[in-house]
Predict the structure of Acyl-CoA dehydrogenase family protein.
Amino acid sequence: MRSLDQARAVCEQYHPGLLKALEEIPYAERERPGSKVIELFRAHGGVGLLIPVEYGGFGAAPLEAVRVQQALGSLSPSLAAAVCMHHFTAAMLYALAGQEGRLTPAQVELLHQIVPQQKLMASGWAEGRTQQNILSPTVTATPVGGGYRLSGSKRPCSLSRSMDLLTASIAVPGEGGTPELAVAVVPADAPGLTVRPFWGNELLAAAESDEVRLEDVFVPQELVVRTSAEDPHRLDDLQTAGFIWFVLLISAGYTGAAAALVDEVVTRGSGTHVERSALALRHEAALGLLEGAARAVQDGIEGEAAVAGVLVARYAVQNALTENAAQALELLGGMDFITGSHHARLAASVRPLAFHPPARPAAAEPLLRYFSGEPLDLA
């Protein structure tokens, strides 16, 4: 299909040879625990996709990033899901780096190391929502000399076994002792940080979505991002930007998995012209809405309007992908199902989009209020 070819061409532009390297691994091996797909991503410069050029990255625009995610999702839904967490974390942190005074010198120095050393960042954030700083942390922070001691866990946590850094939302004492939300950057080899088995489904198993546990892990003060009296909206801005990127990129990865199925039906000539056309039209309509949301962000839409736009695209895509995956399997036929599990697993791999927050029921009433002219509050 033309749209999938276009996505793969963009991916090849940024990460030459990555798609070919993925295709050389049988699908079942690509998607199993311990797969090499994340290391292939790292080896082909995947870490720097959204990192600004001045920090050694590619500085890809939203539409390009969405297309790269589609291409990855078409070959490895696990990889697309996993690296989404790195990318949206990078988008948040480097957004702060572009604004003078918002990060400490130590934080800026660390961000300069990410691309040259191909460091992967896992997300210990609860996946965000607008009009909140960060969701109530699952990691507690106790002040000690020079920093904090962290305890708690994040599960599931994609990239848990390949990460170099973990970014975790924490609560720290603010003025007058009132808890204040902050973000800690934790090296993966920090004493007290361990990874334990958690993911039990064969789908998306290569995403390394296990439990990351922190037991009395020390983080120096200079690696904690906090608000301040002079900059009270620092984490509000951070979370909104991260939320928008997360919704776009996670939706794009699953769209790629569905695209691979539609492409197979069209290439084989399965079913009638009318059936194939209906399948392709539904896919292209969903893809057009998602890419339209990416273009809007690229053109400067922000805040509540951007959040609402990406959520509308996400839920419309979610509907279309599930229907298309089922229809594609039916058109590919019983013998395709009997002789191999590749396409059945691809079809099943689009379903987890519904499980990423915010779930549709949680967003339904806030979106209705927003459409009626009220503020968008997903709290």
User: Anything to note?
Assistant: Residues 120-226 form a domain with the Butyryl-CoA Dehydrogenase, subunit A; domain 2 fold (CATH 2.40.110.10). Strands lie at 121-124, 139-144, 147-157, 165-173, 179-187, 193-196, 210-220, 224-226. The chain has a mean pLDDT of 90.
